[in-house]
Specification:
Layout lengths: L1 E7 L5 H18 L3 E10 L5 E9 L5 E7 L2 H25 L1
Parallel strand pairs: 1-2
Antiparallel strand pairs: 2-3, 3-4
Helix pairs in contact: 1-2
Length: 98
């Protein structure tokens, strides 16, 4: 699986990148057998808040996307990951019914 982490107008340390990749990878493995790619984008907005965007491209399903803003990079990422987990859980439950 190819997971990329990029910062726009903000630098992301190597240890944070590794943490974000690990957490996204674990989440994807929880719901999918195969994921083609995932992207984590962190951007500093005009109000000095960090916006985290996570996009996941599973092999056989539609694309999933979540975003969140917070004062701290880790908080924004955690909020976006929680939203993504909720979306994937809901989609997985729907798929199990059919």
């Amino acid at each position: 699986m190819n997971i990329s982490v990029k910062g726009v107008k903000v630098s992301v340390s190597q240890s944070m990148k590794e943490d974000f990749v690990s957490r996204v990878s674990l989440l994807c493995e929880k719901y999918f057998g195969k994921v083609i790619s995932a992207t984590v984008s962190l951007e500093l907005d005009h109000a000095d808040k960090v916006e985290a965007k996570i996009t996941v491209h599973p092999a056989e399903k539609k694309e999933f996307f979540s975003s969140a803003s917070a004062d701290q990079m880790k908080d924004a990422f955690a909020d976006a990951l929680t939203k993504l987990d909720s979306q994937l859980n809901k989609d997985h439950a729907k798929s199990a019914k059919h």
